[in-house]
TrEMBL record:
GO terms for biological process: RNA modification. It comes from Cucumis melo var. makuwa (Oriental melon). It holds the Pfam family E_motif. GO terms for molecular function: RNA binding. The keyword tRNA-binding does not apply. SUPFAM superfamilies: TPR-like (SSF48452). InterPro entries: E_motif, PPR_At4g14850-like_plant, PPR_rpt, TPR-like_helical_dom_sf. Keywords: Repeat. Gene3D superfamilies: Tetratricopeptide repeat domain. PPR repeats lie at residues 89-123, 260-290, 291-325, 392-426, 495-529, 530-560. This is Pentatricopeptide repeat-containing protein.
Length: 722
C-alpha cells in the first residue's frame, strides 16, 4: 500500500501582512502568470517568486501551481507542492485528485481521497467523476459503493456529471444491468430476489429499475414486502413529489403493511423530508408503536420547519412515554429552546441530557453554547466552553458569536486572539462572526489584518465573507476599501445582498449621488430591488434632506416593485418630513399607515416636534411612545425638552420628578477609539482614563477654536466688508 507523507515547509520566512489591496493585486498577477505559463523554466521562476512573497501556503495559488505542473507532465512536482502544504483545504485536494486520475495513478488517488475523508472533507461535483474512474481502473467494487453512499448522503448524486460517472463505473463492473437481464427472464415470485434488486437499485440511484420491479410484482399479484416499500420510498424522496408519496403510502396500507414499523418509519421520514407536517403528524398519531427513531423524526421535523413550541411539547410527550432520548433528540430540542430564548427550558433540557449521557458529543456542547448565548446566559455558555477538552472551530465560533451578540465585543476580540494563539485555524463563519465586534470597537486595523488573513487562507472567493468585509469597512468609515471590494466582483457575481450593502454604506456616509448611481446600475443588472434596497435609498434622502426624491422612492417601491413598506420605511419618511418641518404631513402619514405604528415611527415624530414645541402632536406622540416603552428614560427626557422649549416649566418639573421617583436614568453614550492597536472607551464626563486631564485640556482648546471660527463666520455674515 502506498503512503503519502506530508513534508514540513521548506521556507520559514515570517510573512509580512501587506495592505489587503496591494496583496490582492500581487495575488491576481501571480494567478494570471500561472494561466499563461507554458514552459517548465518559466513556471519554476514564477514558483520561486511565489515562495519569495510568502504565498507557498495559499490554497488558491497552490492549486493553480499543481495544475500547471501536471499540464506540463510534471506530476511528481505537483505532488511535492501538495505535500508541502501544512493544512490543505478542499480546493487543493480536488486539484491533486483530478491530476492523479488523469495520469492513471488510481491507487494513489484513492489514498488521497481517504486522507480527505479523514479530515471531514469531500470532493465537489466536478471531482467525484475522477474518483469513480479511479475505482473502475483499480477494480475496487466495494470501495466504489462506499463512495457512492457518501455522495448520496451529501446530495451530489443529483448532478448530471456525477450520475454519468456512476453509470460508467457500474457498467464496467457489469453488476446491476446483468442482474436486471436475469430478472427479465425470471418470475418475480422469488421475493428475496426481487427485494435484493430493489435494494441495489436504491443504493445505485436506479429509480426506473425499482419501479420496474414494483410494477411486475403488482402485475403478478405478489404482495411486496416491507423492504421493497422502503427502497421505493427512499427513491421517491429524491423526486420531491408529495402526491407520489401518498400513492405509495396508500398501496402500503392496501398491502396490509400499515402496521409494519419499518414501513411506517420510512413513510414518516418521507413526509418530513417533503415538509408535509400535517400528513406526518397525522401518521405519527396513528402509529400504535413508536420507537426512538420515530420520535426523533417528528421532533426534528418541527424544529426544521420553525415550530419550536410544537417540538418541545413533543419532547415532553416522548419523556412521559418512557423513551430515552439520544443525540438526535437533543440537537433539535436545544435549537428550539434557543429560538424561544427560554432559560428554564434550557436548564431542564441540559440536566436531562446529562442524565441520559447524551453530552459526550462535541455537537451537543456547541448547541448548548449557542442556546445559552441566545438566552443571554454567557456565564453558563462560558462554563461549558472552558470545560470542553475537544473544542472544534465551531465551538470557538459559537462562543465568539455569543459575546458579540451580547455586546461584549472586547471579550470576543480577545477570544479570537486566543483561538489563533492555540493554533486553531479560523473558517469563514468565525470571521463573519468576529467582524461586528471590530466594528463596535472601531478596530479598523484588526479588520485589515483579518482581510489579509482570509486572503492567505484563500477564503476571499466566498461571496458571504466578501460582503461581510465590505459592510465592515463601510461601518468603520473606510468607504473607499468597501467600494474597491464591490467593484472587484464581476457584475454577474454581485448578489442582492452586496448591492444593498453598498447602497446602505453610501447612504450612511451621506453620499446620496453615489447611492442613486448604484441603484440605477442595480436595475440594469440581474438583481431586483427589494425592501432593504429602498430602505437604504430613503436613508440617503433623510441624510441629505431630499424630500421629493424620498417621496418618489417611496412611491416607486410600492407601485413598481410591489414591496410593502415596513415600520423602518415609514420611520424614514416621518424623519424626512419632520426634519423639513412638515410636521402635519408627517402626522398624516402616521395616521394613514396600513400597519400599527410602533416605537420606531413614534420616536422620529416626537423628535421632529422639538421644532414645533407647542403642537398637540408632540404630547400625543409622547403618550404613544411612553405606552410602548415605559422604562425608556430617553423618551421622558425628550418630552421634557419639548416642554422646556414651549416654556411649560411645570410640566418639565413633573417629568424630572417622575424620572427620579421611578429611578429611570438615560444610558450614557459611549465612544470607542483605537490608537496603536489599543481600543479605549469614553463616556460623558469620564475621568477613568490615566491621561484624562490632558484629554479634557485638548478638548477645551478645540471648543475655543470652534467658537472663534463660528464668531468670525457670524461677523462676516453681518458685515461682508470686514
Amino acid at each position: 500500500m502506498l503512503h503519502l507523507q506530508r513534508s514540513k515547509p521548506i521556507i520559514h520566512t515570517p510573512i509580512l501582512l501587506n495592505f489587503p489591496a496591494t496583496q490582492s493585486r500581487l495575488l491576481n498577477t501571480l494567478s494570471l502568470l500561472f494561466n499563461r505559463c507554458n514552459s517548465i523554466q518559466h513556471l519554476q521562476q514564477i514558483h520561486a517568486r511565489f515562495i519569495l512573497h510568502g504565498f507557498h501556503q495559499n490554497p488558491t495559488l497552490s492549486s493553480k501551481l499543481i495544475d500547471c505542473y501536471a499540464n506540463l507532465g510534471l506530476l511528481k512536482h505537483s505532488l511535492q507542492v501538495f505535500c508541502s502544504i501544512i493544512d490543505p483545504n478542499l480546493t487543493l485536494f480536488n486539484a491533486i485528485l483530478r491530476n492523479l486520475t488523469r495520469y492513471g495513478e488510481s491507487e494513489r488517488a484513492l489514498l488521497v481521497y481517504q486522507q480527505m475523508v479523514a479530515k471531514s472533507m469531500h470532493p465537489d461535483e466536478e471531482t467525484y467523476p475522477f474518483i469513480f474512474r479511479s475505482c473502475s481502473s483499480f477494480s475496487n467494487v466495494g470501495f466504489g459503493r462506499t463512495i457512492h453512499g457518501y455522495l448520496v448522503k451529501l446530495g451530489f448524486d443529483s448532478f448530471d456529471v456525477v450520475a454519468t460517472a456512476l453509470a460508467e463505473m457500474y457498467e464496467k463492473w457489469i453488476a446491476f444491468e446483468n442482474a436486471h437481464q436475469l430478472f427479465d427472464k425470471r418470475s418475480v415470485k422469488d421475493l428475496g430476489w426481487s427485494s435484493s434488486l430493489t435494494t441495489e437499485g436504491s443504493q445505485n440511484g436506479n429509480g426506473e429499475g425499482i419501479f420496474r420491479v414494483f410494477v411486475r410484482m403488482r402485475a403478478e399479484q405478489l404482495v411486496p414486502d416491507s423492504l421493497t416499500f422502503v427502497n421505493l420510498l427512499r427513491f421517491i424522496a429524491g423526486l420531491n413529489s408529495i402526491q407520489l408519496a401518498k400513492i405509495v403510502h396508500c398501496i402500503a396500507i392496501v398491502s396490509k403493511l400499515s402496521g409494519d414499523l419499518l414501513v411506517y418509519t420510512a413513510v414518516l421520514s418521507l413526509y418530513s423530508k417533503l415538509r408535509s407536517l400535517v400528513d406526518a403528524r397525522r401518521l405519527f398519531d396513528k402509529m400504535p408503536e413508536k420507537d426512538r427513531v420515530v420520535w426523533n423524526i417528528m421532533i426534528a421535523a418541527y424544529a426544521r420547519e420553525g415550530k419550536p413550541r410544537e417540538c418541545l411539547e413533543l419532547f415532553k410527550s416522548m419523556a412521559r412515554s418512557g423513551i430515552r432520548s439520544d443525540l438526535f433528540t437533543a440537537l433539535p430540542v436545544i435549537s428550539s429552546i434557543a429560538q424561544l430564548k427560554c432559560v428554564d427550558w434550557g436548564k431542564q433540557t441540559h440536566a436531562h441530557i446529562l442524565r441520559n449521557g447524551s453530552d459526550s458529543q462535541v455537537s451537543v456542547h456547541n448547541s448548548l453554547i449557542d442556546m445559552y448565548c441566545e438566552c443571554k446566559m454567557l456565564d453558563s455558555a462560558c462554563n461549558i466552553f472552558n470545560w470542553m477538552t475537544d473544542k472544534s472551530v465551531i465551538s470557538w465560533s459559537a462562543m465568539i458569536k455569543g459575546y458579540v451578540k451580547n455586546g461584549q465585543s472586547l471579550t470576543a476580540s480577545s477570544l479570537f486572539s486566543k483561538m489563533k494563539s492555540d493554533g486553531i485555524q479560523a473558517d469563514f463563519v468565525t470571521m463573519i462572526n468576529i467582524l461586528p465586534a471590530f466594528v463596535h470597537i472601531g478596530a479598523l486595523e484588526n479588520v485589515k489584518y483579518l482581510h489579509g488573513y482570509s486572503m492567505k487562507l484563500g477564503l476571499t472567493s466566498l461571496p458571504s465573507l466578501n460582503t461581510a468585509l465590505l459592510i465592515t469597512y463601510a461601518k468603520c468609515g473606510y468607504i473607499e476599501m468597501a467600494q474597491r471590494l464591490f467593484e472587484e466582483e464581476r457584475i454577474d457575481d454581485k448578489d442582492l445582498i452586496m448591492w444593498n450593502s453598498m447602497i446602505s454604506a453610501h447612504a450612511n456616509h451621506g453620499d446620496w449621488s453615489q447611492c442613486f448611481k448604484l441603484y440605477n446600475r442595480m436595475k440594469c443588472s440581474n438583481s431586483k430591488p427589494d425592501q432593504v434596497t429602498f430602505l437604504g435609498l430613503l436613508t440617503a434622502c433623510v441624510n441629505s434632506g431630499l424630500i421629493e426624491k424620498g417621496k418618489e422612492f417611496f412611491k416607486e417601491m410600492t407601485e413598481s416593485y410591489g414591496c410593502l413598506p415596513s415600520q423602518e420605511h415609514f420611520a424614514c419618511m416621518v424623519n424626512l418630513l419632520g426634519r423639513a418641518g412638515l410636521i402635519s404631513e408627517a402626522g398624516e402619514l402616521v395616521r394613514n399607515m396600513p400597519i400599527k405604528p410602533d416605537a420606531r415611527v413614534w420616536g422620529p415624530l416626537l423628535s421632529a416636534c422639538k421644532m414645533h414645541p407647542g403642537s398637540k402632536l408632540a404630547e400625543f406622540a409622547a403618550e404613544k411612545l411612553i405606552d410602548m416603552e415605559p422604562k425608556n428614560a430617553g423618551n421622558y427626557i425628550l418630552l421634557s425638552n419639548i416642554y422646556a422649549a414651549a416654556g411649560k416649566w411645570e410640566e418639565v418639573a413633573k417629568m424630572r420628578s417622575f424620572l427620579r421617583n421611578k429611578g429611570l436614568k438615560k444610558t450614557p453614550g459611549c465612544s470607542s477609539l483605537e490608537i496603536n492597536g489599543r481600543v479605549t472607551e469614553f463616556r460623558v464626563a469620564d475621568q477613568t482614563h490615566p491621561r484624562a486631564e490632558d484629554i479634557y485640556t485638548i478638548l477645551g482648546n478645540l471648543e475655543l477654536e470652534i467658537k472663534e471660527v463660528r464668531e468670525k463666520s457670524l461677523d462676516t455674515l453681518v458685515n461682508p466688508l470686514l
